[in-house]
Amino acid sequence: MCYFPETLRKYPPVPHIDRACHTDYQLNNDVLIEKGTPVFVNVVHIHYNEEYYPEPEKWRPERMLNMADNDNRDFTFLPFGEGPRFCIGKRYGLMQIRAAMVQMVQKYKFEPAVGEPYQIDSDPYSVLLSPKSGGRVTFVPRSNEKNV
C-alpha cells in the first residue's frame, strides 16, 4: 500500500499553482480568460473535493491503490503541479522520501508526543505547507534483537 500519494493529497506541499494564460480561452458562455491573465489553481480545494475524493478529511491510503508516480487522476491530483511546468524535483523528492522513510522505520517507531493534538492545522499564511503552531513526534528506538 502506498501512503505517499494520500499524504500528498491531504497535505500538498504547495496549496496553489499560478500560471499565465497563453491564449484566449472561452471557459463557458459568460467567461473569457484573456491571454496573459494570471490563473490560480487551488490545489487544496481540488484535493478536498468530495466529487473526486469521498470523505476528503479522512486519511485513506487505499483510495490511491495501483497509482503510478505519473498518474494525476485526470488533473485531480496535483501535489507537484502538472504539464510542462510541473515540479522538476518530483521524482528526486519522491526517491528521497522513500529512502529516508526506510532508514527511519528500520531504526524507530513513531508515536505522537504526549499532550500533542492529533489534528495539526496548517499555517494559512505560509507559501509552503507548514504547521500553524509546530508539531512534535516521539522517536522510539527499535530493539536490535532479532527473533530467529
TrEMBL record:
One of its GO terms (cellular component) is endoplasmic reticulum membrane. Keywords: Heme, Iron, Membrane, Metal-binding, Monooxygenase, Oxidoreductase. PROSITE patterns: CYTOCHROME_P450. Belongs to the cytochrome P450 family. InterPro entries: Cyt_P450, Cyt_P450_CS, Insect_CytP450_Detox. It is an enzyme of class 1 (oxidoreductase). It is a peripheral membrane protein. Its EC number is 1.14.14.1. It catalyses: an organic molecule + reduced [NADPH--hemoprotein reductase] + O2 = an alcohol + oxidized [NADPH--hemoprotein reductase] + H2O + H(+). Its cofactor is heme. It is found in: Endoplasmic reticulum membrane; Microsome membrane. The keyword Oxidoreductase applies. The keyword Nucleotide-binding does not apply. This is unspecific monooxygenase. One of its GO terms (molecular function) is iron ion binding.
